[in-house]
């Protein structure tokens, strides 16, 4: 079976690990009974890592545009191949929209705290024009949450599709995304 | 001549151990003005890197203390704080670049001075009182500033939930 280029495989699994970290840290920092100091630090880490996720998806999209993706095996019906493409498109859009919503949220926050990536090596700017805008912050916050819930549903479908194609067509698609 | 020199030395050394009619300029070269408070339960400290003051202390006839602080020179060494402090909700350094202190009354204490005056921050002048203590070859003073009274961080944290309401200022002048 044709597999994806190595750089795409690397990006895929790095971002998968990144998403799990973002989900876990996000849920923990909002809900866990932790000290304010820990909560504050975790927010800063989540913000920095979010910038990395945003940059990663942009690189992923650039690679997608310039590198060729292997076609799905012809044993998979055209209708299912179409659905797979739609599912992948949804993943790309969500991986772009989730950190973007987070960025808007941070930029509009009344705290006005800066975002530093890798401690203070790089200062990530605020999105212009939304500074200290509570209603924008509220909308971005809801979007950040609901997009993550949608992402989890799409991810479960993404993983479920692996089992579906293995069972139905006897094809282990995971091989396309592994070395 | 030699004995006269000794007398001068003794006299000068007496002058330096007893504060008589002290008059001096203090800035970051011979003094430290630091601030500290709590953020999210963590203590932060910082210094004003650029400030200057003139002190004319009792028993001078007209004692006074005047000081000016460049607010943009407040540095904690933590990028998150240092980037946030100059912002509109905190020091608003673009509109209010300088903070000022002018004394209204200075009285001699057993071990220093009691200073009353007005501290102007963010365009708002409020009365403060603090003691300057003589400690060996230093003048030391501590006082608290109520940041909310000056409208500092009023939008971000009006309930002092994250950043303590009182910010401790500590002044040490080397004599």
UniProtKB/TrEMBL annotation, chain A:
- Span of the signal peptide: none
Which stretches make up the Cytochrome b561 bacterial/Ni-hydrogenase domain?
3-178
Needs which cofactor?
heme b
GO BP annotations listed:
respiratory electron transport chain
Which domain of life does the protein's organism represent?
Bacteria
State which residue ranges cross the membrane. Answer: 7-29, 49-68, 89-122, 142-164
**Database matches in Pfam families:** Ni_hydr_CYTB (PF01292)
Classify the protein's membrane topology as the record does: Multi-pass membrane protein
Checking SUPFAM superfamilies in the record gives: Transmembrane di-heme cytochromes
Its chief place of residence is: membrane
Q: Where in the cell is it found?
A: Cell membrane
Q: Which keywords does this chain's UniProt record carry? A: Cell membrane, Electron transport, Heme, Iron, Membrane, Metal-binding, Transmembrane, Transmembrane helix, Transport
Recorded GO MF terms = electron transfer activity; heme binding; metal ion binding
Q: Name one GO cellular component term.
A: plasma membrane
Q: InterPro entries per the record?
A: Cyt_b561_bac/Ni-Hgenase, Cytochrome_b561_oxidase, Di-haem_cyt_TM
What's this protein's family per the entry?
Belongs to the cytochrome b561 family.
- Kindly provide the name given to this protein in its UniProt entry: Cytochrome b
Q: Which organism is it from?
A: Alteromonas sediminis
UniProtKB/TrEMBL annotation, chain B:
* N-terminal signal peptide: 1-21
Q: Which residues form the Lipid/polyisoprenoid-binding YceI-like domain?
A: 21-174
Query: Which SUPFAM superfamilies does its entry note?
Result: YceI-like
Q: What is a single Pfam family found in this protein's UniProt entry?
A: YceI
SMART domains found in the cross-reference section: YceI
The protein's matches in InterPro entries, at most eight in alphabetical order, are given as:
Lipid/polyisoprenoid-bd_YceI, TTHA0802/YceI-like_sf
Decide whether keyword Signal is in the record.
yes
Does the keyword section mention Hydrolase?
no
The protein's UniProt keywords, in alphabetical order, are: Signal
Q: What is this protein called?
A: YceI family protein
